[in-house]
Design goal:
Blueprint lengths: L1 H18 L5 H15 L1 E3 H8 L3 H4 L7 E5 L2 E5 L4 E3 L2 E3 L1 H12 L7 H9 L1
Antiparallel strand pairs: 1-3, 2-3, 4-5
Helix pairs in contact: 2-6
Length: 119
């Protein structure tokens, strides 16, 4: 339940800040890039090439790998998290977040910095 509540808070925060001109297009792009990094998001063809595997094998969900369509393009999500009834679980991303949170953000990283301070 906490994941859903936090997701809604985060979405509301982004909408509010964008409407009030406290986030701009560049900020949203940075947020999308940050999310892509945490998801290990890749197109199916890029994922297959990187893993030296067949496209048809890469497009099938397997062992934590999932396929999602975003903006009309199919992507592979393979970040070691498995989605189940309890939600996403991963210890490794938790430690990555803590390490990233300690990183000093520059002006070009203002959107992720806002997200970190909100969490």
């Amino acid at each position: 339940m906490k994941v859903r509540a936090n997701t809604e808070k985060l979405k509301d925060f982004i909408v509010d800040k964008f409407i009030n001109d406290e986030l701009d297009n560049e900020s949203l792009v940075q947020i999308i890039e940050l999310c892509g990094d945490y998801l290990n998001l890749k197109t199916i063809s890029a994922y297959a090439k990187e893993r030296k595997m067949n496209y048809n094998a890469a497009k099938k969900p397997y062992n934590g790998r999932s396929i999602r369509t975003l903006f009309g393009v199919k992507f592979v999500i393979d970040n070691g998290k498995v989605y189940g009834k309890a939600g996403f679980k991963s210890a490794s991303l938790s430690s990555q977040y803590k390490a990233t949170k300690k990183h000093k953000c520059s002006n070009t990283e203002s959107a992720p910095a806002l997200l970190y301070t909100m969490l």
